[in-house]
Amino acid sequence: MIYSTVNLQAATSTENLQALEEVKDFRTTDLGRGGKERWTYHLLPEAALDAELHNMSNATSSRSVDSVTFQPCAAYANLNQDRYSIEEWELPGGVWQFTAIYDGHCGHDTVNYVHRRLPSMVRMSLQALLQSAPITSLKPELVSEALRNTVRHLDESIRSDLFDFLPYDHLTKMSDAQLNRRISQRYSEWDTISTRCTQGSTILLTLSDPLKKNVWILNLGDSMAVLGGRSLSGKWSAMIVNSMHNGNNPTECQRIQREHPSERACMTDNRVLGYLAPTRALGDTWLKVPSVYTRRAFAPHVQDWLTPLQVAEYASRILTPPYVSDLPEVFHYSLDVIPKQEIILILSSDGLQDLYDSHDVQMSDQEMADRWVRLIGRHTRPTKDADLQSNLALRLLRDAVGGNNIELVSRNLTLEMEDKWMDDVTILVQRFR
């Protein structure tokens, strides 16, 4: 056997110094897991942090709303399942403003469907109300009811598509061969329907009238809305508007247990049927319809993360659906009677709250809300330059990813890891005064 010999010259001292220079700002972390595994991140200089965060979070500002949406993991950056809307509608009586955060789970199809359809549905519903009653005599409860009904109607449309394709009485009588033939003949249609039915999305939206005297906040899921105000004395206060619709909320767990009194598995490990964290959402139709749909129709076409054994186990727990609710909570505030010089509204997906778990001090939801409002309150004065500091949502995101802790911020932005190390984060900050 003939071997080839390769002669490699030893690196010079200059080259060694250059190599050391290239890695001097790299660090490793175990993410607090305590194991042997380490992941690398790049320690960025303070001057570069805000610019990097601005670019990675798609930070934007409109006349009265600042926004960011953030997922730093390179493998998931383009797979961020959060969506948001900021729209202004010219309607009878003036311009209404609509904002919303949609936090998708288990995929993109359902959250895209909600993002695409809900704003126009709300606008049509509001327009119908304004045509029947002038804005000056429009009762707030009518707007609340219209918002609630619109969200439920959208969820009903997902179920209707399923029942039109596979009526319950037909499904129970079909043989496996007949079912497979029906699905294969219209597979593209079925793929769209089944995907929407096995994915879901939460919703947190606001609607404000032309004079900014009234604001409505609708919540379905576990995103958070915080209303902040500055009093005449200059002190800021924060109020969490909505309750969390997830398994960590004892009230929600008790509600589901009351609705399914003889089913011990209806809430397991703080999850609906041991599977889903949000207790209210759009989609997740397989948890709202008879189990025959999951066992016979969804199981062969369910997403990759569930094995057939897992699907069978969850299906066996579906006895008296629905388990996930599509009934939102709607809150109305008359801003002209609130004695505050400045009023802001913060909307955030649940990923923002999760980020504070990496901080040294554990905070309650109210403590987080107080922190957010105080932080934003220090920067609410308008600036002439559209610089990084003028985006209030970006300010809040910077605090959440580490604030003044350069190492923590750098780690959260540059960690070299294939798995997501944080949930998707979306923040909208709306200024009313």
UniProtKB/TrEMBL annotation:
The record's section on CDD domains has: PP2Cc
One Pfam family named in its UniProt record: PP2C
| PROSITE patterns in the record | PPM_2
Report the GO molecular function annotations. protein serine/threonine phosphatase activity
Name the domain of life this protein comes from. Eukaryota
Domain PPM-type phosphatase as annotated: residue spans: 76-432
Record InterPro entries: PP2C (IPR015655), PPM-type-like_dom_sf (IPR036457), PPM-type_phosphatase-like_dom (IPR001932)
Official protein name in the record: Protein serine/threonine phosphatase 2C
- In its UniProt entry, the species of origin is given as Rhizopogon vinicolor AM-OR11-026
